[in-house]
């Protein structure tokens, strides 16, 4: 198994794969007579292909034990898919660019806890990787006709261990 380096999740680093959904740096303004702050247009929801419609779901991710083996990836060719944690919970994001899956292009990110992600259409990603405890996420994705999930097994799996998470946490601390 090959080790997979984990880096802190940031808008710039994640841009080739989708959107980071977070309040820091987001456009916002007061609404409702100033009693509420609206953080506006945080992600590009793309679900209309072939008459698709948006679905709002809750995914309950079971905590993964370390080390984590990345032996498969999936993509949604007909729509984006967004994950927003319900609470402050670290989780891992493993992605690769759209197109033919290139195992050498697989990247891993560690969320700060409140960050969500929106995978753009066709971006390869690993299913939800909750850490530490069972975690709930609101998921916005596509419903409708058409095949919208491709899965591929990796010939040579990647592995993420505790030292890789610790390095990503240290890098997050340096960035803040």
TrEMBL record:
Entry EC number(s): 4.3.2.3
GO molecular function, one term: ureidoglycolate lyase activity
Pfam families: Ureidogly_lyase
Gene Ontology terms describing biological process: allantoin catabolic process; purine nucleobase catabolic process
Cofactor: Ni(2+)
Keywords, alphabetical: Lyase, Purine metabolism
Pathway named in the protein's UniProt entry: Nitrogen metabolism; (S)-allantoin degradation
CDD domains: cupin_UAH
Catalysis: reaction(s): (S)-ureidoglycolate = urea + glyoxylate
Complexes and interactors: Homodimer.
Protein's job: Catalyzes the catabolism of the allantoin degradation intermediate (S)-ureidoglycolate, generating urea and glyoxylate. Involved in the utilization of allantoin as nitrogen source.
NCBIfam families: PRK13395.1
PANTHER family noted in UniProt: UREIDOGLYCOLATE HYDROLASE, UREIDOGLYCOLATE LYASE
Family per record: Belongs to the ureidoglycolate lyase family.
Designated name of the protein: Ureidoglycolate lyase
Organism field: Leeia aquatica
Gene name as annotated: allA
């Amino acid at each position: 198994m090959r080790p997979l380096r984990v880096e802190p999740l940031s808008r710039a680093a994640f841009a080739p794969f989708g959107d980071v959904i977070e309040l820091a740096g987001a456009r916002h303004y007061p609404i409702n007579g100033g009693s509420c702050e609206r953080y506006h247009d945080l992600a590009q929801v793309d679900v209309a292909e072939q008459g698709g419609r948006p679905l709002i779901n809750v995914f309950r991710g079971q905590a993964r034990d370390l080390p984590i083996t990345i032996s498969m990836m999936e993509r949604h060719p007909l729509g984006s898919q967004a994950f927003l944690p319900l609470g402050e919970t670290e989780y891992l994001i493993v992605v690769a660019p759209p197109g033919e899956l290139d195992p050498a292009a697989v990247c891993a990110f560690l969320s700060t806890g409140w960050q969500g992600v929106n995978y753009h259409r066709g971006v390869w990603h690993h299913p939800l990787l909750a850490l530490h405890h069972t975690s709930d996420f609101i998921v916005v994705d596509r419903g409708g006709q058409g095949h919208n999930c491709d899965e591929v097994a990796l010939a040579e799996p990647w592995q993420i261990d505790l030292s890789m998470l610790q390095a990503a946490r240290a890098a997050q601390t340096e960035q803040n």
